[in-house]
Write a structure and sequence with these properties.
six-stranded mixed sheet; 3 domains; five-stranded mixed sheet; alpha/beta; Rossmann fold; globular; single chain
């Protein structure tokens, strides 16, 4: 089935789960978890719904979950509560006898879908003709296994929002130019923080198959793939200006997947873990407008009632693809394991996995 095998691809959620009460489903999840013990592992991304997070064996951002997946040796089944590319990464890093399961195959990532291998192969050919052997590819972990493998084959690595600066510093010791996939905003914000001016950054448009740049291309040090996060792009300069005018005491903290202008106007910018830690350590009574996914913002609001925490964009909604993972789909996945009829197993092609592992290991060695 191409680069990624989806073993026993399901159709739709069986009707029985639509008829169960929340209490019944929660009880069944607890029973199955207790029955399997350490043979069952549930890593859960911070952006997941509370109805799922309550059962997590570990919560974290992309870097933490990648590390935990690599370290886990006991679980026979890893039911990954996240999105497609995260489950791929878990399958790549775990042993062949461990099964990685995604409760709902519709849980994808629009950002990851913005860079496919056909586009990347064509782009790489143009870039090699333009710049010669001077480019190292880096990819945000929010990318497909195939894109990670492309970076691995070409001496590059993966990055997360937690370690993007360190990885970019390392990359510049290897080559004089960096191709950053697939999120232009994280690439731009990180490079700018390292002192690289915007004038030395070009955008590659994979649809039009051309550079977006005015000037001498030979001056370019960062090539930004024209991709983005559909959630984080919804935070705007207008949101910030309105908030500053109405309540100048509010601290604004955003994720570096936000646009350059939003990051520059904010008080702080950093990874999901950075945002969580900053608010945890903030003094009581402080006010925080947060520019990241709504499930996490709501959880921070509920957890830190001694502070005022709310979304930078009052009209924000949760990540729709991440929210595909819900309690009924989680229970369905667990009951099929119990019945010996595993569904939605993620299995990355071995050749792709070998090259993707190179990219991931180059990151994990420096994490």
């Amino acid at each position: 089935m191409g680069l990624l095998d989806v073993v026993n691809t399901p159709t739709t959620l069986p009707d029985k789960y639509k008829k169960m009460t929340i209490e019944e489903m929660e009880q069944r999840v607890r029973e199955i978890k207790e029955h399997f013990g350490e043979r069952l592992y549930l890593p859960c991304h911070h952006y997941q719904k509370d109805e799922v997070v309550q059962f997590a064996d570990a919560t974290g951002d992309s870097l933490k979950l990648a590390q935990l997946s690599a370290q886990n040796k006991k679980a026979d089944y890893i039911v990954f509560c996240g999105v497609h590319f995260m489950a791929e990464t878990a399958d790549i890093l775990t042993s062949p006898d461990q099964k990685v399961i995604l409760p709902d195959m519709r849980a994808g990532c629009t950002m990851a879908d913005m860079a496919d291998m056909d586009q990347t192969d064509r782009a790489w050919k143009v870039m090699q003709e333009t710049f010669g052997d001077t480019i190292l590819p880096l990819t945000y972990v929010n990318s497909t296994a195939a894109i990670k493998a492309f970076c691995g084959r070409n001496g590059g690595a993966t990055v997360t929002s937690s370690n993007a600066k360190e990885m970019l510093k390392w990359a510049f010791t290897e080559k004089e130019r960096i191709l950053f996939l697939p999120d232009q905003h994280l690439g731009r914000n990180t490079a700018y923080d390292l002192g690289i001016p915007l004038e030395q950054m070009a955008i590659w448009d994979p649809i039009k198959e051309k550079f977006e740049y005015d000037g001498d291309l030979q001056q370019v040090r960062i090539i930004l793939w024209k991709g983005h996060c559909s959630v984080h792009e919804k935070f705007t300069v207008e949101n910030i200006n309105e908030l500053r005018e109405n309540d100048p005491e509010v601290n604004i903290i955003v994720h570096p997947e936000c646009t350059f202008d939003v990051v520059q106007l904010s008080d702080l910018a950093g990874s999901t873990s950075f945002i969580i830690k900053t608010i945890e350590q903030a003094p009581a009574g402080s006010k925080w407008a947060v520019g990241t996914e709504m499930n996490l913002v709501n959880r921070l609001t509920d957890t830190h009632k001694d502070k005022e925490v709310f979304s930078l964009n009052p009209n924000m909604c949760p990540c729709l693809t991440m929210n595909r993972i819900d309690l009924p789909h989680l229970l369905w996945a667990l009951e099929t394991i119990e019945q010996g009829e595993t569904i939605n197993q993620i299995s990355v092609d071995q050749d792709i996995a070998i090259d993707a592992t190179k990219a991931l290991e180059r990151m994990l060695e420096r994490a």
